[in-house]
Amino acid sequence: MKTKAFLISVIFFLAVAFVFIIPLFPVLSISNRKNPSEKIYFIDGAQGFVVSYTHSVNKGRVHDYYRAEGKNLILYRTDFVSYGAGMPEIEETPGAVFYQADETYTMEYERKVGTSFLLSVGVIAEHSVTVANNEYFLKDFFTPKTSLVFECIKIPAIELLRRHHQIVR
């Protein structure tokens, strides 16, 4: 009887440890490239997110829409208010669909970004990330001019608990 109880206890302990150690929870991770321990997680970010900024030339807001496919990030849409240097051109993006609604230009396309991308927190650009319809300004989490790594990863439950103050829901 004691052996059976011990065996059940060991199996239960291993199952709990498995859940806490194995990366099962998908998140959008944004981390400091030079100091990776400085990071924030967005639980709903693995479903998709928007990076927004004020364009340096035309001074309008640009919104880049991303989603995760497996480990890869896909940039699939860009909204902007006017053309300027560095804005996407329909002729240069095969398969893109371009349309205008109200005062916004939208370009839909598929561009595989890779498993991550870099972005520096702008001083004037007001970089933000929108997750689940909530906008968060990156300067509220990181010092301006910090180089950030964006990636969708899976983390274990222990990481969720350890960094609960750095997780945005």
Layout of strands and helices, then pairs:
Layout: H1 2-21, E1 25-32, E2 39-42, E3 49-54, E4 61-69, E5 72-80, E6 97-101, E7 104-114, E8 117-120, E9 128-131, E10 134-137, E11 147-155, H2 157-162, E12 167-168
Parallel strand pairs: 2-12
Antiparallel strand pairs: 1-2, 1-11, 3-4, 3-9, 4-5, 5-7, 6-7, 8-11, 9-10
Structure notes:
- The protein has 169 residues and is of the alpha+beta class.
- The protein is built from two helices and twelve strands.
- Strands 6-7-5-4-3-9-10 form a seven-stranded antiparallel sheet, with no helix packed on it. The chain has a five-stranded mixed sheet with strand order 8-11-1-2-12.
- Strand 6 and strand 7 form a beta hairpin.
- It starts with a helix and ends with a strand.
H/E element order: HEEEEEEEEEEEHE
Counted by DSSP, the helix tally is 2
Biggest β-sheet: strands ordered side by side in the sheet: 6-7-5-4-3-9-10
Mean pLDDT: 86
Poorly predicted regions are none
- Major sheet attributes: 7 strands, antiparallel
Which class of secondary structure composition applies to the elements? alpha+beta
- Beta-strand segment tally: 12
**What is the strand content?**
35-45%
C-alpha end-to-end distance: 45 Å
Helix content: 10-25%
Radius of gyration: 20 Å
User: Which descriptor suits the 3D outline?
Assistant: elongated
